[in-house]
Amino acid sequence: MTGRKWVTEEDDYLCPLSQETQIIAKEELREDDYSRKTALDSMREWIKQNPRIKNCRMDACFLLRFLRFKKYIVTSACIALERYLLLRQTFGVAFSCLDIRIPQMIDLTNLGYMFASPKRDKNGRRVVIARPGVFDLDKFTQGDMCRIHGIVYETLMEDEENQVRGFVHFADGKGVGFPYLTLFTIKEAVRIVKNGEKTLPMRHKEVHCINAHPSMKFALDFGMSLISEKIRKRVRLYTSIEDCLESGYLEHDVLPKEYGGTIPMAEMIELWKEELRRSHPILMSHDTMEVDENLFTQREKDGAVSALRRGGVSCGSEGDSLCGITGNFRKLEVD
Fold this sequence. Notes:
- With 335 residues, the chain is an alpha/beta fold.
- 45% of the residues lie in helices and 11% in strands.
- α2 packs across α4 and α3 crosses α4.
- The C terminus is likely disordered.
């Protein structure tokens, strides 16, 4: 299994983390120079000897996502990596062709459907802002929704500070009503939520939601039943932005000016698009990662996420109509 060319080759790791973040990594994740080196060596050797993995990234930044996600339990990190690679392949709509130049991705970014605040919170965590109400059901598809989430999350996971410190999520449910429930079947929703917590190597520290419509209460209750007790305790629901800010859990300045902060949303989106431009090459290189599906059981493949379908057209297939469409970054303008 040697002599293969990988998406990225092994590198000599130079820790880019701040001293404060290194202390957090040591206390919360059991990470230090020795554990990092030995774990990376073990993980790389496991990948090389694993016939189910045909190609993946071998650079430290990528592999550390999984080691930090599993707190340096190497066997668990290896399983998480394998599940992640399988998920990428069986749920291509959320992971393949993560091209921010696709017109629908440009539109959703400009609308502020999902972006990260340029400011970190008091604990140094990035705050992911979601505004699902701007998602036009007549204009966009479930595939568009999955793909923009993939672009945002993969971009953020490239930053090692984020891998250690984790994420805070802020969602405004204004404009989201019953029709949104038609986007996914119950089976698809279950798989997406489960894999969002168990397979994506992200440390979700807090979730804050405002303006949840009463008609969506049963959907929220159902979603909460799917996540672990640990994450469930980190979710806070508010009736308004005022209630959210008064709670004291979320600082004002990490939010757009429209939500009580100081930086206008349009300015935040422009700064976020700069991050998307920088991450674009590596996200596109991920399409060459591959596993041998023949060596996985049907149960394992079903446990990932099967390709979604809408109107009889697979959103996650090689024939995805969005794949291969190129655009121009100059089109990334705020309307």
